[in-house]
Amino acid sequence: MLRIAVPNKGSLSEPAAEMLREAGYRQRRDGRELVLPDPDNDVEFFFLRPRDIAVYVGAGTVDVGITGRDLMLDSESAATEHLPLGFARSTFRFASTAGELDEVQQVAGKRIATSYPVLVAGFLWERGVVPAGVVRLDGAVESAIQLGVADVIADVVETGTTLRAAGLEVFGEPILRSEAVLVRRSDVDAPAGLDVLTRRLQGVLTAREYVLMDYDVPLSLVDKAVAITPGLESPTVSPLHNREWAAVRAMVRRDQTNRVMDALYDVGARAILVTSIHACRL
Length: 282
Ligand SMILES: Nc1ncnc2c1ncn2[C@@H]1O[C@H](COP(=O)(O)OP(=O)(O)OP(=O)(O)O)[C@@H](O)[C@H]1O
Ligand SMILES: O=P(O)(O)OC[C@H]1O[C@H](OP(=O)(O)OP(=O)(O)O)[C@H](O)[C@@H]1O
Ligand SMILES: [Mg+2]
What we know:
Elements: E1 2-7, H1 13-22, E2 35-38, E3 43-48, H2 50-59, E4 64-68, H3 69-75, E5 79-84, E6 90-97, E7 111-114, H4 117-126, E8 133-136, E9 152-157, H5 161-165, E10 168-178, E11 180-185, H6 194-209, E12 210-218, H7 222-228, E13 236-239, E14 245-253, H8 257-267, E15 270-276
Parallel strand pairs: 1-3, 1-4, 7-8, 7-9
Antiparallel strand pairs: 2-3, 4-11, 5-11, 6-9, 6-10, 12-14, 12-15, 13-14
Residues 11, 139-142, 155-162 line the site of 1-O-pyrophosphono-5-O-phosphono-alpha-D-ribofuranose.
Protein name: ATP phosphoribosyltransferase
Keywords: Amino-acid biosynthesis, ATP-binding, Cytoplasm, Glycosyltransferase, Histidine biosynthesis, Magnesium, Metal-binding, Nucleotide-binding, Transferase
GO molecular function: ATP binding; ATP phosphoribosyltransferase activity; magnesium ion binding
């Protein structure tokens, strides 16, 4: 039975549960459950703090887990990234009082507050920058400068709203781009059952990333239209009752939907329909 660690709280928790549900697994109804067996799918879920998940996976007490790339790297555990999951995207960046600093070298001799001290120390060491010290905080890191415990912070930035509200501004290159990832232990062979979990999660990712596009097009224009919608392998072309026309079906990237519909219409396709993919296995 594959043992899977899932975030119990925080911004990773709900999207992780939703993804697993879409992949056909049981998920807990009560936010306090710590363990949830799913015998039909031969897996067992353990709900743990996202920061601890890479530690458990690295120690081998659970087989795989969902956590953030930033949390995994900061843990220094024997866990490795197996599959990026496309949600909880963020960047990890330096920030200080607006207008004060503009490059990483200026962090030398300054006090840094962060929840990710390993990531920060590694990044600065690689660049030969020696700070005055690194203060480890649990959260609300944006307040550390105003409250006088640090001169610079390194924190998760998504929209930048929290930084702006604190009168701070990012500077220097991003330390890391993060997202939710499925992690496994780095020093052993892949556990039994990981291939099925991986295919199911990849199916969810594809279903989210692509739509199905159907359209009718005059036979003489099929090649032109198909060049716009090549699909993943090759689009399906079917005959229509009107022998001068064909029906085409292809997968299209969701974020390209309207651009592709415009291009198809321009070459003469009509009755262009777009439907969501509920599930898929490529
Ligand atoms: N605003 C955000 N947007 C996107 N990802 C985020 C955001 N805040 C945190 N994350 C990501 O979530 C993970 C951190 O999860 P964690 O549960 O520890 O923090 P949290 O969501 O801030 O919860 P907590 O309330 O416990 O601080 C990291 O991978 C981080 O990059
Ligand atoms: O760029 P933004 O869209 O504003 O998001 C980034 C903020 O979100 C997270 O904080 P969270 O709300 O989890 O609080 P925390 O600092 O206590 O973890 C993160 O630590 C940043 O502070
Ligand atoms: Mg947080």
